[in-house]
Specification:
By secondary structure, the protein is mainly beta. It is built from no helices and ten strands. The protein has a six-stranded mixed β-sheet, with no helix packed on it. Strands 1-3-8-7 form a four-stranded antiparallel β-sheet, with no helix packed on it. The protein is globular and about 40 Å long.
């Protein structure tokens, strides 16, 4: 069965960096697009970044130039490198097999001012 396990969240000061990882299993990872979403308290879940099977990427305007999504098909893992973090980036970050209802349990990122 499909499993997505996020890691790498934590508490960081504004301006700092974190790298999130999502280990995937149960499907043909290299053939599928993957995505990171986030949900802040009291807000709807939103798309942060997406990477296709050919490694083309898309980003939300709010994170362009600060976040980078990448994938390692040999490790069945997708990453989200987050730099220049802001307090408004505080949220639970979720990994998603793009276009499906398969989600990880999420990892909390808290950015202090």
């Amino acid at each position: 069965q499909v499993q997505l396990v996020e890691s790498g969240g934590g508490l960081v000061q504004a301006g700092g960096s974190l790298r999130l990882s999502c280990a995937a299993s149960g499907f043909s990872f290299s053939m599928n697009a993957m995505a990171w979403y986030r949900q802040a308290p009291g807000k709807q879940r939103e798309l942060v970044a997406r990477i296709s099977s050919s490694k083309s990427t898309n980003y939300a305007d709010s994170v362009k130039g600060r976040f980078t999504i990448s994938r390692d098909n040999a490790k069945n893992t997708v990453y989200l490198q987050m730099n220049s973090l802001k307090p408004e980036d505080t949220a639970v970050y979720y990994c998603n097999l793009h276009g499906t209802s398969y989600w990880g349990k999420g990892t909390l990122v808290t950015v202090s001012s």
